[in-house]
Fold these 4 entries.
Entry 1:
Amino acid sequence: MSKYFLLQDSERCIGCLACEIHCKTNKDLPMGPSLCKNMSVGPVEVKDIPRVRFVFMPCFHCEEPWCMNVCPSGAIKRRAKDGIVFIEPSLCIGCKSCITACPWGACQWNPVTAKAVKCDYCMERVDQGLKPACVTKCLTQCLDFGSAENLPTGQRERFAAAVARDHFNPKV
Amino acid sequence: MDGKKAPNVSGVDSPGRRTVYSICGMCAVRCPIQVEVEDGRVVWVQGNPNDKGMGTSLCAKGAAGIPFEYDDERPQYPLIRTGPRGSGQWRRATWDEALDYIADKLKEVIEKYGGKGVALSDRGGPFNDLTKTFIKSLGSPNYFNHDCTCGRNAHHAAKSLFGMGRKDWGMDIKNTKHLVLYGRNMIESLQVKEAKDFIEALGKGAKVTYIDVRATLTASKASRFWMIRPNTEYALNLAWINVVLAEKLYNAEFVSKWVEGLDELESFVKEYTPEWAEKVTGVSAEEIKAAIREIAADAPQVIFHLGWMTARHRQSFHTSRTAHILNALMGNFEVTGGLIAAKGPGDYGLKGVNKLEDRVTKPTDERVDQIGTKYKHWDSGPGLAHMLFANMLTGEPYQVGAYFAYRHDPLTSIPDPEAIQKGMDKLDLLVAIDVNYSETAWYADVILPETTYLERGSLVAQKKGGKPSLQVRDQCIAPRFDSRPAWWIFREILRRMGKSEALEFETIEDIWHYQLDGTGVSPAQLREKGVIGLAKDAIMRDREDGLGFKTASGKIEIISPVLSEAGLPSLAPFYEAPPKEPGQFNLVFGRVGWLAHGQSTNNPLLNELMPENALWINSKVAAELGIADGDTIKVSSDGAEAVGKVKVTEYIHPEAAFMVHGFGRTVPLQTRAYKKGMADQRLMKGKLTDYDPAGGGNNLTETVVTVTKA
């Protein structure tokens, strides 16, 4: 695991998909690759309201990334200091092994550069003390980013409360 | 003409990194943004954090401003039509050539029909001082905006009760305890600040009653959701008023002080019981009663939404009006969590921005839509654009010979484009000024490419609100193509007409200096932050004796003398639409959070999220019709047809069919959107001239379509 968490409060999420577009514009990606997916689940009727949930899926930055293990050119690396898994574009030979290997679809094909791309938590921003593009511009601040030590105050409590709330236990 | 590019704000081409404050132009909301430019290229756009309500947030449309900027599928240089209208045959022209062409034709039109023979429509908003000045300078009263397909019914409803318009009352959504929404899909038909406030309010425990014909994402967040029969919200409101009066759930003190006509209201709603409304709306009488009791208990921290896109039918005006009346009965005015009067600089003893419009004499001719003459109960401001096109066809009360579509696409937004085109065929001159190939641009004689919002500065925008503010759109980068900013285009046309006095400025900065003179804010200060609040603390009006309603009585008038004079009832009997045949539906339309109608469907990244739309129909009805999810279907109405995919779902009312608006584009140069999906407006046969006699908006959702398997 990387030392960072990218959290989503599904209660606050409105499914506007701004996160996906913020990511793509920050990485200057064309049509095709999508480094994160905000997937809607449902609707499930809870107390007569058809509720839709959202699941934000960026790269999980695995402890032992399959993508990194299959990469023949050593283009995929894992930073020792924080565990961010990233692709070094100059080393990528465009063989698509990582795309086949990742069970989560985190590695994507960029048809313009003919190389693989993946979420790196916008590490150039992280290194400047900033948050990833998706988090910075998230419309309702349902996304948050941090390490275990600096999770925003109240975040865990809010999650716990939300999970305990009745409509997280649908009568279906 | 100064070289290849439009007059730039100084420094635009400079190397290195710059931060520029601007205003988003990807939809009509116009959020304040912060733009990072590196070596003349936009690399980052986020919300302007100097605006607290905005923070760094930005929606998908706003984020897609960068791919829009660097997309080549937009008008790049002036085009003059060479074939028949709509044929797509163009020749490239220089600016001088295109502007001279327009001026020559304009002179002929004015010679023939007078100044009033020219009309213009735009998208409204904070910059329309420019377009109004342009049209007035030509001697024409015919300024229009897109509001006939947006908030006009709600605006006129507010006017009839308060003497004040739709935007004169803001909604304190963030602090409300109960919000009632009539089809106002707050998180998909999206305004960044409003959506943030909405989620904030929910987090604080606010309740939301959401009424719509389908389960939207807003319904998903609501605490109560009613899937109501199409076009029956008015019936629900009448029943609610019935209960409020019968059970004395209203704020007696507020009502006795501020509301006139309670007796008439009481006797009018007597017959509209919850039991009656149950049969009409499909919502049970018990639920109707329980809901209004619960809502009333939270008053005055309650908002019955003032209406924006209330489903538009012949009684939407009265739906809006009764929502206002419910607010009035509960006293939700000038109170935290309720409605708060929007204040301008004047309310704080400050001087507002100077208007360009004031530099022109007001034309005295009758408007072509006859508002102010024949139709005195309507606000002349932006008029009713559908009447402009209907009147083009008949030549009544007079013929319009030239029409300018500025960033407005009536062939997408106003129903029955075929009928509109017939009206346009009578024009001597049709000019489109836009950053996109709109459907209207494709039908025009001349297309003038405007610089994008990232490539231009616009007029200083003055915003009313709890606290008024000034905002600026500064130029971020040099134009990529041979395009020009709007103020320059309009000035150049006027110069050729010898009527440019009001717009004689050399740069946008000169205009800012004129606008800001005497306000105590300088262009430099505004540039530094993008947004400047004009007041420190919000002031509230006195609920005892200072609410400032602008009616003759100074109170909320349930019986409106203005409506009476026009021969219209202030309290109109509910209209029950005739029953539909099996396989027929009321066609409704709406949005998703990442599209702003036809303006977005060709955007590279937004198109990818939704390449085409689908028609939602109810699963039970679909089964009866032998239609399965994903089937190709044919939607038809009165000879008009669309073919597309169907989405079968239990989350839409059996009598309604829904599609996302903005698809079915016919401009081949928009390769991604071309002929993808269905266009609802093309199915709205006859709806150009079918409108609410009290509110003026078109009866769009009364369009009945037949759905069959293709």
Entry 2:
Amino acid sequence: MHIPLWRRILTWVVVAAGVLAAVPNAFYATVEQSNDAKSQIESGVSDDALRAQAAGWPAWLPSSIVSLGLDLRGGAHLLAEVQLSQVYAERVDAMWPQVRDLLAAQRDTLGFVQRIEGGDPSALRVRISNADQAGRAVDLIRTLAQPVQTLTGIGATDLDVRADNGVISITLSEAERAATDERAMRQSLEIIRRRIDEVGTREPTIIRQGEDRILVQVPGVGSAQEVKDLIGATARLTFQHVVSSTNDPNAQVTPDQEVLPALDQPGVYYILDRQEIVSGEQLVDSQPSFDQTGRPVVTFRFNPTGARAFGEHTAQYTGSLFAIVLDGEVISAPQIREPILGGSGSISGTFNIEQTTNLAVLLRAGALPADLVFLEERTIGPELGQDSIDAGVRASIIAGLLVMGYMVLSYGLFFGMIANIALILNVTMMLGLLSIIGATLTLPGIAGIVLTMGVAVDANVLIFERMREEIRRGKAPWRCFELGYDKAMSAIIDSNITSIMIAIILYVIGSGAVRGFAVTLGLGVATSMFTAVFVTRLILLHWFEMRKPKKLEL
Amino acid sequence: MAFRLKLVPDKTSVNFFKWGGIPTHATFALALASLIAVMTIGLNYGIDFLGGTTIRAESSENVAVSEYRSALDQIELGDVTITEVFDPGFRADQFVKQVRIQAANETEVSNALIGQVEAALQVVDPQVVFTAVETVGPKVSGELIQTAVLAVAASLLGIMAYVWLRFEWQFGFGAVVGLFTDAMITVGLFSVFQVRFDLTIVAAVLTIVGFSINDKVVVFDRVREILRRDSTTPLPELMVVALNETLSRTVMTTVTTILALVALYIWGGDVIRGFAFAMLFGSVIAVYSTIFVSAQVVLWLGVKRDWEKKTDTGPSGTQFTTSAE
């Protein structure tokens, strides 16, 4: 058995790199503080205290540390489902005025046009009194359809229009639904991210899961409810035309109108056109500010489309009122004194400074395209996390000592310690690897490390047992050494490949903490192959070359 | 020769098959009993699988569970279980209780509920803090059961395919029968003792499957090795030789694994105890099933013995190249 020099060097370089990568974890708090300070300095904030913290860990050393899972650090974990069907419903609902106007223009042939309420909300259903003209109505409505901009839906339009006994139902086409889903999901992710970032929590995880789900993990938060409040503040802002005001919340209105309460005047209700002049999506900026009288207000600015629509409306309805509606409440209903053409203005109300700040944040972040339903919520307190870390570290150390003691008892000080060095290197390299790849360590992950300690010696056990067999057969020490490694190899490979298979399956199906276990288990198996086979063989090889033993004490 | 702790002598000749198929049938019976236990007694599913809310309430005062219960009786919660948690790692003034509230249909409701629960408990125990609150909705819990079952099935199939590829189909089948009984009996144990069964336990069961297959592969590897050089010895004798030759390794690795798991069970904290318990039990049963189930099944099926006559290297199954002797 000869190992070329370059492979020996490579092996030791890999070991050294693994150990070096693990080093920052021994100074976890210092490195964490230093990393935080560095990222703050990078974002523009800087003072002496921060610079001192940043300098607390030398820049030439690796600074990646194992990131701790929520179960170890404390925080909130939420799994939300985006109610995508709501988006379809809103889309088709918004089409009604257009469809009505289009069909009403042909009243001579089509007859009366009437919307059928109720039923599946993701379909807009319209009845025309001349049922035999349904085909013509369908053709007319189809002219409203737009081509869908997707790769798969080439040639597809966004609407499915069908007629059945004079009832025409309009739904979004398959291709459009897929495109809408994608947009809604991306928008939801972005909005959730912005809302959570506004609070300045560090390292939140916000990722899409599956078709319609979003996983949100925020470390250091006291309860899932806080995160929900943050995300759930919908802040849907619209500007609508005011028809009149009333004191009756159940005032009779046409289907095109709605009655909404005033936010700061109890008992006052506004009758509004459902049709929005401009909605919050067209808002490009919003800031807390003060008006001429020194009252806190929220300023806003629209994009060109919004500005044009707002300008047209205010020009047409100079003198009447428009309502600023936030989440179904009228926050103010100012009179239009002159056309507002620049697309910017301010919202006043009985706000204090904090409220204007919050409102501006919510407006900037925009509205979620659809409601979220929370399927799973977990909050872990930081104390419990610390207790778990302490228990995990304690169990790991004791487990390590027990296993190492047993190895020395069974294989003697020399061979036992070689296996133990491999074991220590294995755990160290595992931590190093976890730090580098940025995997998250969870409580089951620690269990995985502990288990790895028990199982990782298996490769060395297999090798040593083989060597013993060869010694008993009276082979020369050098042959025993060679044969021990050679013969044990196939069992080591087979058993480790099956273990890695299990780890992969666990990773694929598992979520959260279980995934953390799969990662450490898989990494542990991989690094143990390296340390238990390559490293121990190299150590023994060095020893054989130096001592040229006549007899193996194993 | 210096001192060596040897739990297994250098040369052993234990005839593992002297009882014939009795231990195997006993294991099958046990696996069947486990299946019946799961179906009749059922499993003490955690919220991962059942949906609902668990609250971990910690306090510096030792307030009796009954007081918690009577405090919670005031509010309408439906099905509530309160259990006291003990752990040797706890501080002298650390008292932990687990409150489990059965699935509310809407997770949204639970937040108001949690506030109510907290308020009610603070009346009897002003020091109480909720160190963990977990809510899983019924929709997710249903999916979690599905994926868990799928994972176990997928891993068994994957392993069977791999062992078939590397050895012979008889070995693959024997291995999977052994793994299946391991998993079944472990789950049965959770049913009989009503230990809480959640996602981490599924992870534990899968890990047992992984540990168990290791053990089986090592033995099969030795059988294959002997088969290659010996075409006359009857399979049962050969299997006994293989088992004896690998016995000291089996014992070594099992002992180190058990040592690590015992440490985890005792000192790893109460959150991970169920997991450690499953693994500890599973690692013992895994070794047993290698000999008395998987090896026995291979014996019953028999292995084709004529392949080594065709070629000198006599590949049984797919070979990875390792440097030859």
Entry 3:
Amino acid sequence: MSPSPVTVRTITREEHLDFVAGRPSVSFLQTPAWAQVKAEWGSESVGWIDASGQVVGAALVLYRQVPKVRRYLAYLPEGPVLPWVDAGADLGAWLEPLAAHLKAKKAFGIRMGPPVVTRRWHAATVKAAVADPALGTLGEVPADVNDAAALAVADRLQDLGWRRLATEGGFSAGQPQYNFWLPLADADGTPRTEEQVLAGMNQLWRRNIRKAAKAGVDVTLGGRDDLEAFHRVYVETAERDHFTPRPLSYFLTMWDALTGEDPDRMRLYLAHHEGDLVAATTLVRVGTHAWYSYGASTSAKREVRGSNAVQWQMMRDALAAGATVYDLRGITDTLDPDDPHVGLIQFKVGTGGEAVEYLGEWDLPLNRPLYAAFTAYMRRRG
Amino acid sequence: MTFELHVDVERWRGHLKSAAERLPGLVPVIKGNGYGLGRDRLAAESAALGADTVAVGVYAEVPEALEAFDGDVMVLGPWRPFLDGAAVEQALADPRVVHTVGRVADVAALAERAPGARVVVEGETSMARHGFDRHELAAAVAALGGLEVVGFAAHLPMTGSNLAEAESWAAALEASQLETTTFYVSHLSPGELGQLRERRPGLTVRPRVGTSVWLGDLGALDVRAKVLDVHRISRGERVGYRQRAVTRDGYLLVISGGTSHGVGLEAPRSSAGVVQRGKTLAKGSLEAAGLMLSPFTVDGRQRWFAEPPHMHASQVLLPASATAPAVGDDVRCAVRFTTATFDRIVLD
């Protein structure tokens, strides 16, 4: 267990990066670079300092202003990075100085998403559950792994006055509570081989990967200049799948911020078939954790399975880079076959990975009237 | 002095048989006072019904059940590491006994204590009594060691329809890592059991039933108490241990059946509606005045106790307007069978 921290203070970008580099992995939403991506929010790097002056915990805090008032919601997406489970009964000693620090920065409330995994469901379990009409949500399915110590963190947060944000279907509030991971290493840390990863996939995935190779789909890495081509396909995907695309400038900013921090933090993958761009994706990696972040594919030439080819290349590269987790990001908790989101789960389940449940997002009101007004305002915005 | 249960055997066994037919896979529950009928008798009836397993409530009931019944004996109350005594030792050593587990630590402890023991894994239903949270099942499986899982159990509440909850647990069982397809369930109607079986063809659904089998046809059971004495009494006369003055002229009946038989023992009732609550209130005020309605029916009506029942007999008031029974007559008595003890059970 880490020694109990004594203070919380603003840390420099360098101190923050040093701390991140010293850990196996932290969420990319907790890197200093993410503040540059979310430039419309104020931001601060915050550190927990022990008696010897060491940084033993860190957070990227994003400040969201309340309309017309110089007060802020302090948001720590997928953070802070703390020894959550090991802190045990001392968790208050870590969180109370944070609250005092943020209050002094005119925060009326804190919202955080402890990067603590509480439960896991293997692919076979999720698959069986989707097929079972009596199981409507992931929460009703017996987890294959239940981390009692991680679950106990929720009780401690409640005792400390934090409130769990309700999630509806797992997607409405902030970061998703349920995510899908493809483990690239065994529980004991032994890296898996490409053959093992491939063998874990369902037949459809394996067949599609083979099909793409046979059709001659060529996957290459792109640079900043290729983001425009990625964006063209991404907009086409957005129209087809009915979501609002982000502007090209968002991806350029993300590229500059993430690669500026570490040249290998963000990658762009392009899948071509006979000279035509058929799929493009972005991969983000911090230490041993790799995230498939954005994906796009053309409506034409779907039969050459460019999207499977590009996924497989990202997985292999993540494996080669020493990643232990290939993160396919959020899923909803619904298992209702009639829910449109279930297709997304089935696609991810096909990789043979596992659904993981996070502790969810939590709020600590620091100024009750303002916090109440803010939550009412957010509810109205929907 | 006799406080007797007369069983119309033909009718009772007819009911048992039809109940067993409506409840395929039935595990008869034989616990406590044997529902007033006696545990040994129920064990014999279970064997006659062809049951391969009976369920008892606690470990103290195991040795007698093993003696009286040739098949498996399942213990409904979970095994806990702090349980000790000869009955527990015998149960742990006997391969015919099936234990219930409901906590990860207990599974590990039992696996160490009695490797090879047979267990039923229980889920914590909305009863919130004991059992595993569904997310703990994987940890339970990991702790099993050499234990043999013979089934999964869900003990459901008695109100309303439990089919949805039963099915949710059945689905949880099928999606879990537990290597069993036997699902023990309580408090489902025969119709609900049928629906559950239809929706879960992969599972063997086995109902565990006590009351609705043994006491499902109360018409076959007749409780008779003997009138031991009949005294004329006048208003103001003092009677009984407490020398309380009676309020009306009439008769004082001395009837067999007292606290040792379970007469006058009450458990809190679940009062469903306003009327029931009103009745309870009205009764409460009479009780406050020291009067309580007795379970004895004399001359067509339930009569009041003159004072709290004695150990083996009760003193009951009968107004002068009623027809008094003769000494030696039988009167009917309404008992709570799960708390009743009879001097004699007569199979008619």
Entry 4:
Amino acid sequence: MIKDKAAIVGIAETAFARRLEASECELASMAILAALEDAGIAPSEVDALSSYTMERTEEIEIAGNLGFGDIRFFSQVGYGGGAGCGTVLHLAMAVASGQAEVAVAWRSRKRGSGPRVWATSAERLYDGYKYTRPYGLVRPADELAVLTRRYMHEFGATREHLANVALTCRRMANNNPRAAMYPKPLTREQYMAARWIAEPLCLYDNCLETDGALACVIVSAERARDCRHRPVYIHAGAQGISAPHPGFMNDYCGTPFRTPSYAAAKALWRGSDFKPDDIKVAQIYDAFTTMVLLSFEAYGFCGRGEGAAFTENGALDPGGRLALNTSGGSLSEAYVHGFNLINEGVRQMRGSSANQVPGADVCLVTSCDDVPTSALILRN
Amino acid sequence: MAGDEKMIASWPLPTTNDHDAPFWQGARRGVVVMEACGSCGKLRFPPRPMCPSCHSRQQQWRELSGRGRIWSFIVPHPPLFPVFNPLAPYNVIVVELEEEPAIRLVGNLVSEPAGPINGVSAETIRIGEPVQAVFVPVTDDVTLIRWIRRR
Ligand SMILES: [Zn+2]
């Protein structure tokens, strides 16, 4: 087990905006350099790297731009939004096992100003999309909408519950000057009147489209004691693919609400001294509001079908049962494939969040519920 | 997926491979044909080279009734692939099959086989509605499976 053997000692991000001039490679380099400065560690000391398989800037570009020395470990974690926490987990394992000493995870995206990934399709479909796209089910939002409609039907969830998630994230972002939606308030009336994307999902059920990059620096617990900031220990981490294991969702077969998060959660709690009851703040992957409800269930904060009711009565506010996405998350801070959730988890443990949860000493961070995924428990 | 493929301004269509060709050939003949294990008989979808239950690589193809029920449905709005934008809002339904409800096919609910995918008002669609497969030739080699209401 990796329990508390490695720590995050540096975090940084570029600005978040719909359009940034710098390239993805430049943004990645800037974020990594700033994270190393935050840690007080020289770039020449970095010997391990991890990012996502969809990252377009290669390790050798990063190492070249930043003047790294010899690299001894590198990995790319698969499945897009499911990868974020996995990058930190891979590096925590590398550091804990002595394979590396100074490790950097990053994600850089131009999803705001770049082409929409679903705006074009191959003329002929070779993969699983051949069973969905010919019928006009073309975007991730469409796939989530299928699940959302069924979830509402089976468990009585309503748009009011989805709005609880969207409005919570926006309120958090309204206190966070880094957030793309700072300082733009969102009312329940605006949510209900918003244009549809894929009924029953409206505009505000969908994450932002953002340019930006983030990075964090991981070293051993021993080394972390000599760094600039209070260490944030990587207490537990896990990846997960639930059986049955589809490419995206379980809509083709099997049990649709048993998403990959269930497998990740099982492994995560097994490696942790904490239980869901001990967690008062969480950064839950929120590309779509529905994912958050399903994640509450998967990670054991409530039972199957109870994720909607869990959002009621201010439960997601700071000081509530489970403070949610305290930077604004993907819905209102930035959509950078969930890496901003990791850095915000670190800020909560440092006590420096714009929406600091009083007394928070442990934080759950998750990656995408609907694809092969990963999760972390951070502690101070 | 390789980056040099032609991107379309037209309808996205499937290619067939060694494992799934009978499914698409079945549609061209006007039948929902589903892969089953040649050893234990369990139906599986999407087509794959090994039975996840008994690990046999033997396969057989079974003609099904083409009957099912609506398991979920959505109504996409633009921006979509260019070809779908003029048709939106339209319906997409997910159908659980009568013979194996754990297998679900994505499709569209139409008022008649040749009808448009925006021809049935989404306000009238209900989860659990019984539906019947219909077969819509799109090109010489591809026939799509759509669905009409069954009574
Ligand atoms: Zn079998």
